[in-house]
Specification:
The structure is a homotetramer of 390-residue chains.
Chain A (H helix, E strand, L loop, with lengths): L4 E6 L7 H10 L4 E7 L4 H10 L11 H9 L9 E4 L6 H10 L3 E4 L7 H14 L3 E3 L7 H11 L6 E9 L13 H6 L2 H4 L4 H17 L3 E9 L10 E8 L8 E7 L8 E8 L2 E6 L5 E6 L4 E5 L7 H5 L11 H21 L11 H19 L5 E2 L6
Parallel strand pairs in A: 1-2, 1-3, 3-4, 4-5, 6-9
Antiparallel strand pairs in A: 6-10, 7-8, 7-14, 8-9, 10-11, 11-12, 12-13
Helix pairs in contact in A: 1-11, 4-5, 5-12, 6-9, 9-12
Chain lengths: 390, 390, 390, 390
């Protein structure tokens, strides 16, 4: 077995939600050990949270700046291999920038940062220092999403004409942020969440899922963002029409909806891709199935763990068909792929398959959020939303 | 038992699809007898088609003008009670106008006609002559749609914030009209279908379904119509953002998609309504169920035929729960409701419940199609699409 | 068009459930006209019920004996072509026997009669007089059931190893018969329903569905019948293990469950057939789909109305895919197939395809009920339940 | 945080399936560390497998006897806290007996052992030494199964009348054991698997699931075991009728089917419980939902992670609703509950809630397998299968 990678973490302390998911996912397959952290922006809470989790007191830091300094002072063989950033959004940028600049590989939650300017800076910093920089768009870690991507790439859909992606949630239908619920509190606060509410928190997942599966690039956006809950400061519902860049003579059209006020939906991310030959449907809440619908033939239900699936789906599967895998495993797949890149960087080995979202995907996501907000404020129907790879 | 109403029909001869559905539905509960017809625009085919169906040769007409004249010449007790118009769209207007003007009640397929001007004329004609004028937006005939309407009206959803309606089809993903397939042929021909392709043929059903269930009125539309199949002359895919007129201080937002190129979908009409208290989901291909999702409680699956349902659902149900009813029965419910109005007009009795779409709904539908096309051609994001009841 | 067949009916008056279904189904495609009836065992109710339905008073009979006599007195060209018997079970035998003996074709509801002796007598009577004798096992009228049958016959499943058939209902979980509910009343009364409760009323449908689709013959039965509701006189729950006659060297095993006390199920008839090459699953409450699962390949969802289906499914389909058909249409398919046989008998024409259940199927069903009851009372595990075609 | 428990493992080396699941599940929440092992019955393979996983060479043992001796030689603060036994079935007994007798807590896979005599011995051994002895009936670890149990216990179903439990698999429909596939090889070999094939491997899960949720005790069994695949030495299909001990005056009836030859099913464990007031349905392949069907009301879909669920479901949930949890998490819940008992034994603290299957459940399962085989060979319908707690 490979020696596990040493992970440090910023954020994810007491009361956090996603930090524990990151830790469990990162370590799921024993490829990573969690060895250092600054788990809260409050030094006392940070220390208490790290103690809860059994961190070595010397590596349970009061501030992320302390952690960076402390880890750099360790010999390379003990120092963290990478930093996982799972704070509220506004902290992503300074932390990611500092660790990347110091040559420490980065795994950062999404959305990457608040502005395209920050994103560009992060991408340049990562590029300059040569670090691996993964962004945890976790839904692209699902095996059946990878199967969808393979099938789309291999032309089984023909030319893509239309994409409908939905991210339906209902948890913010009431003013939950008034109750002190921590997740609602920061996600509805522009100073911490960024300029996007639903569009940033979940719409960016939807954008990335489409890009990952189809490879389509957005040409233009027509957005209508709404804040339904009185007194809320960010959008809680986003509806978009999209025009993708023509490919093979076909310009695909899209609908993207992301909402946090749709009562009765939990975490209902759905993707449909319609081509000239077939269509695909995937649904995050039942992630082990993928519907494939070739023209003129019966619908086929592909199921995770079967021999008829492609290499990417098989590689990202742990247990046999019918023994359902879910959210944690998909998240772990992102960490594993990033981990493979981190190991490859250490050894200088060629990386066969860098199948994880990078700082570039994160930057494209920030651009998408900005353009959506711009479009929503515009009277023009179409807002140019083309993105130039950094 | 009431004496059955006597129905004449225009259209619906050999090779037609929807004519047989209308005849079966109209007569399903023995409230209607089919006694006269001009079943094709080709006189020979009309006569042959009527003979196929056993029409009395004296009432099997060569032209609809002959039928109108012939029926008016009969004594009222033999004359048709109403005309059912099931032709391609371009024939609706002249036939409906002539019969309505002659005082004969009308049941007409949707979309009502090609232009708002025609629609206004039909509404005025019907109003002047006092005839009953039903438009067969058949999906509003489903019992569980009526249940949804009742629940929305009674406030079980709270204020409505968002509506997503989809009408997904894939049958025109290829150029079926080139093969001589009759349904594809006229539906893709602007001179017969009207200015709308998918938006007219199925988008108008989606519009009516929302209006029927929610009572929401459209304020503004932002549409993107596409013709994906090369050489086709009408849109085969329609994506809309919608703003509804504020109600109770809440402005509902909407997404409407209607497509004929989404391979793998058959007749996949779906409605979701999200309110401040609960949401509703209905799906035409499994029409006997209705999902109701109150905030903070488990989803509830309402099922047709059960005692916990409201009066409208129960009234429009024939057979017990679990013995599925479907398309024909919903269609028949529209005919039955129209038939009740026709009988009431005969007897002068008050009509307790005119639960069927009328010429007014048809006119609003034509307005919707026109505004969608206008919006699709516009660079402005929002096209005013308010409609003034005629 | 063919002249419609003239149908008489016994039973199905006021308060009945299934009579109206038979009338609607028989006449759905205009191949049958309902012209005579004795709609209740109570003469007054019979007359009132017939008047409700607009029967010619001369052919609205007080007793079924009157009807038989009255119709025989009419010239053949006016006389009913066939009698439809939709009474409670105990009336099936005398009526069917008398009409069959008089040379009038018969359509009779299931279970055919109370005893195998009666069944044998009916089969012999029908055989002697040469009449057509259909039994309305309506679920075999569904197009996707016919597709399943075709696929099983054509070897797409390989050799059949196992069959699971369920008929789950919950409507008799309480003592509904105490409330005066008419359906519950006679169905739980041995003198009218026969010796079987759930096993007779719905178990017999399950038996026939398996026989129809698979062609398997029952060798032996191991049954456990229960009466859960205190005071009820017939079983309301039936669970069976079944051994089928070996075929191709494989002895298939079966599970059959039929229950009226399973709260939360409405009319939940389900069939699963497992072969050496593939399996099939069908569910009556969503009858337009059929799941086909070939070994080592993705599940395929066959959907009614598509071109890839076989001749039998296509022939029994009225409207396009996605426009759901349901219970009434399946019932009508049984009437249509029986009607074709009745017409063929009139004309002496060869009948290409007698695809409807006959008195033989009805007799086998009665045998099945008897053997199940015998088994349930026995301490031996297996009760020989082989059936010799009459 | 509590210091993690130290786990040793027997079995689960290269080519094994379930060993990795146990390791991941045990360590998922950082409550357990894997520190010692003998991962194969082949010493060379054992050492290689342990090295793969990074075991300390001093605690990577050649035989389980070596491990027992080696660990006992360590000071208590270093010695393994418990042994996890994940070998083929025939090895469970000697290993479990030896470790239990030595006072080391045991987590053992199911079925517990080959005979009731062995099971009794294990139970007595565990009782005498006072060890915690868990058996990994992992399906009872699912939160929605715990919710079902709570609802059944709290009387929300009323008295239970009927239980249908199915464990449908198709992976052994062909003679997979001839191909050298390791899982198929030992599971179809009586000397390693025990006297039960499908009934032992998966039927025992079904038995335990019913007992866990309902608390019903089996009175009598009527079984039909079949070996469909030629040349196979154990049953690959099991169908049972069951009579449960009367409770509250109601004797519940049951159907249990467990099959490995049902093509198209993967790991399709389903449970339905029907009471006098309501019913429950749960399905392992979509484990985050639970259907509750109260009499006369709409079906309700309970979904994991929501506030309306009971304490047991909430306690066994890690991530929010809509972020699906699955097989691994359920397995981990069993380890966590066993771990709590192990910690409580260390500290002498009272254990609030010992919510995990024990040696007693394992023994009852072995009894069930034996009685099923006895019944299958018997000509009598009912085989007494009552079980006396040891």
């Amino acid at each position: 077995m490979n020696e596990p990678l040493r992970m440090g973490m910023v954020g994810g302390g007491r009361d956090a939600f996603i930090g524990a998911v990151h830790r469990t996912a990162a370590c799921l397959d024993n490829g990573v050990r969690f060895v250092a952290g600054c788990l809260s922006s409050s030094p006392d809470k940070a220390l208490a949270s790290g103690a809860d989790l059994g961190l070595d007191p010397r590596r349970n830091y009061r501030t992320w700046e302390d952690m960076l300094q402390g880890e750099l002072a360790l010999p390379p063989g003990q120092r963290i291999d990478f930093i996982s950033i799972v704070t509220p959004n506004h902290v992503h940028y300074p932390v990611a920038r500092a660790f990347a600049a110091a040559g420490i590989d980065v795994v950062c939650d999404k959305p990457l940062c608040h502005t395209s300017e920050q994103a560009r800076d992060l991408a340049h910093t990562a590029n300059k220092s040569g670090v691996v920089f993964a962004v945890t768009y976790n839904y692209s870690g699902y095996p059946m999403v990878k199967q969808a991507r393979d099938m789309a790439r291999q032309g089984e859909l023909g030319d893509i004409r239309k994409v409908i992606v939905e991210y339906n949630q209902g948890w913010l239908a009431g003013k939950l942020e008034s109750t002190g619920q921590k997740q609602a509190d920061w996600r509805t606060d522009p100073s911490r969440s960024g300029a996007g509410g639903a569009i940033g928190d979940i719409g960016s997942h939807a954008e990335q899922l489409v890009a990952y599966v189809t490879g389509l690039e957005i040409d233009a956006i027509c957005a209508d963002l709404t804040t339904f809950v009185p007194g809320r400061r960010l959008d809680d519902d986003a509806n978009l029409l999209i025009r993708y860049a023509p490919r093979g003579g076909v310009q695909a059209k899209g609908i993207l909806t992301a909402s946090q006020i749709e009562i009765g939906h939990e975490n209902d991310l759905r993707l449909r891709v319609y081509g000239t030959k077939a269509s695909l449907i995937w649904h995050q809440e039942h992630p082990n199935q993928l519907s494939f619908r070739p023209d003129g033939e019966p619908e086929r239900i592909y199921s995770r763990g079967n021999g008829y699936l492609g290499a990417a789906a098989r590689k990202n599967t742990r247990i046999p068909a019918g023994h359902p895998e879910a959210f944690l495993e998909a998240f772990a797949n992102v960490y594993n792929a990033a981990g493979a890149a981190i190991r490859a960087r250490r050894t200088g080995a060629a990386l066969a398959d860098a199948d994880f979202p990078t700082v570039i995907d994160g930057a494209r996501g920030v651009h998408f959020i900005e353009k959506t907000i711009e479009s929503s404020r515009s009277d023009r129907k179409w807002t140019d939303a083309r993105w130039t790879n950094l």
